[in-house]
Design goal:
This protein has 190 residues and is mainly α. The protein is elongated and about 55 Å long. α4 runs antiparallel to α7 and α6 crosses α10. It is built from ten helices and no strands. It has one domain: Tetracycline Repressor, domain 2 (Orthogonal Bundle). This is TetR family transcriptional regulator. Keywords: DNA-binding. InterPro entries: Homeodomain-like_sf, HTH_TetR, TetR_C_31. GO terms for molecular function: DNA binding.
């Protein structure tokens, strides 16, 4: 298997562009090669199967969604509180809506995983690792609530992002107000 980390990331980014433009059906190794401007067969050297390619896209999405260390340090300097937790969640929404194609690609991958057991395993591992990391961060930061509340917020934010970045119910509520209500109602009693 090819080991060039930069090339792997560039291929995954090309794959994300293909996925955003054509959906999962249009995502092939050849399409990724063409989008990346590399010789045919390059993507297959890095991602041996379609499921490996799709799974790598999920991992790349998470890498690209990684928070800015400066912003985390700024937030982390504050006292743990419900308001701080709300600001962390606002920052998640800000990051995921600033790159809507990545969030849509993740939604697409999750739907594709329903039909592809190997992708479900690969992507599921990535998502569960992210959840565990979120819980560990939450606990280390001394924020109110615990694993259950973090899970509740994952479920709620997935729905909010789906509505913000796809066909919306258009209920007319400000996303910032929604985030505040979600955090206060799901976490305040913890």
């Amino acid at each position: 298997m090819a080991r060039n980390v930069e090339r792997r990331a560039a291929l995954a980014d090309a794959g994300l562009r293909v996925l955003a433009a054509t959906g999962a059906r249009g995502l092939t190794h050849r399409a990724v090669d063409a989008e990346a401007g590399v010789p045919l067969g390059t993507a297959s050297n890095y991602f041996r199967s379609r499921d490996a390619l799709l799974g790598a896209l999920g991992e790349r999405i998470m890498e690209r969604f990684a928070p800015d260390e400066g912003t985390l340090a700024e937030l982390g300097a504050r006292e743990p509180s419900l308001d701080l937790f709300t600001d962390y969640v606002r920052y998640i929404v800000e990051r995921t809506t600033a790159q809507p194609e990545l969030t849509r690609a993740l939604i697409e991958l999750r739907l594709e995983a329903v039909r592809r057991p190997e992708l479900a395993r690969i992507l599921g591992d990535t998502l569960r690792r992210g959840y565990r990391d979120d819980v560990a961060f939450h606990v280390a930061a001394g924020l109110p609530g615990g694993a259950f509340e973090v899970a509740l917020l994952h479920y709620a934010l997935d729905g909010l992002l789906l509505d913000l970045l796809t066909t919306s119910i258009d209920a007319g509520f400000d996303p910032d107000e929604v985030v505040s209500a979600l955090v206060s109602r799901l976490v305040a009693r913890a």
